[in-house]
Amino acid sequence: MEVPPKAPPHPQGKASAKKPEAPGRPPKAPRPESHLAMVRRARRTNRELAEIYPYAHPELDFRNPFELLVATVLSAQTTDLRVNQTTPALFAAYPTPEDMAAAAPEDLEELIRPTGFFRAKSRSLLGLSQALRDNFGGEVPSRIEDLVTLPGVGRKTANVVLGNAFGVPGITVDTHFGRLVRRWKWTEQVDPEKVEAEICAIFPKSEWTMLSHRVVFHGRRICHSRKPACGACPIAPLCPAYGEGETDPEKAKKLLKYEKGGQPGQRLSPPPDYPGLPAPPLGGTAP
Questions:
Q1: CB-based contact 174:156 (threshold 8 Å)
Q2: Tens of pLDDT along 215-229?
């Protein structure tokens, strides 16, 4: 009689019998992440983003608080690149709040036309310039309570100006920031003020401004809205949404943008430590 061959030995030396699953019993659902675990993951994500983007910065060109305020108002519903291409001529014509407050509306509209919604933006710029001239001595205030009284200025714009022109920490909840913190399960809130409050509670105040830059950088370069480059993402192991985008590394690399994709950034005058190319002027070509 033929003897059946022996089963190969178990790597540990003993055969292990797998317990059969009870028929009809559904697999156990993964345990939901605790708030403490989420906070630890979020803070680790921030530390890793700091290593990935040590050069993160505001992507609007500016030389003083007034220029940053104006550029941020213009950035609504358009790209920072288009704003940066538009503001050199604007600030050459109106370098101070007093100059802009006295501008003819049609002249101001023509200069900011490339940013879109130029009539509404012109009204905001005229209104905030006049308010700065009449109520603040021609100076941009350094308190959020004062900034939000200016026409066209909400908390997002105020936090951009405070964090980057005055060094006052703040979370800037723009489109990129909001969608990434929800994608990463740091919050489920949609209202920007509620998002700001919940994220502020996770991180120390000293991190707020740079966290905003790092998250926005990642959203613009890798973690895109419609097709994130999951396969090229350095923080993929920390992301609960991994797999929503392209996971093949070679295909994902083709989705990278700006300096990560070897393309110009959004600033015509980037900081000295920026590793990418400066953006071209309006009507120009990339260097």
A1: yes
A2: 999 999 999 999 999
Specify which residues 277 forms β-bridges with: 264
CA–CA distance, 199 with 208 (Å, rounded to integer): 9
Question: Which residues make Cβ contacts (< 8 Å) with residue 264, sequence separation at least 6?
Answer: 258, 276, 277, 278, 279, 280, 286, 287
**Could you write out the DSSP letters of every residue in 106-139?**
HHHHHHHGGGS-HHHHHHHHHHHHHHHHHHSTTS
Q: Is 212 helix (H, G, I), strand (E, B) or coil?
A: helix
Q: Mean pLDDT throughout 119-139?
A: 97
Active-site residue (options: 61, 80, 121, 174): 174
CA separation, residue 171 to residues 21, 122, 164, 223 (Å): 49, 26, 11, 19
Q: Does the annotation mark 174 as catalytic?
A: yes
Which two tokens mark 104? 């003819």
Look up the pTM and report it.
0.87
Write the pLDDT tens digit of every residue in 136-157: 999 999 999 999 999 999 999 9
Element (H, E) at 175: helix 175-183
Instruction: Write down the catalytic residue from 107, 156, 185, 191.
Output: 156
Distance between CA atoms of 35 and 153, rounded to whole angstroms? Answer: 33
- Burial class of residue 146, CB neighbours in 10 A (0-12, 13-18, 19+): middle
61 catalytically annotated = no
* Segment 270-282, tens digit of pLDDT: 999 999 999 999 8
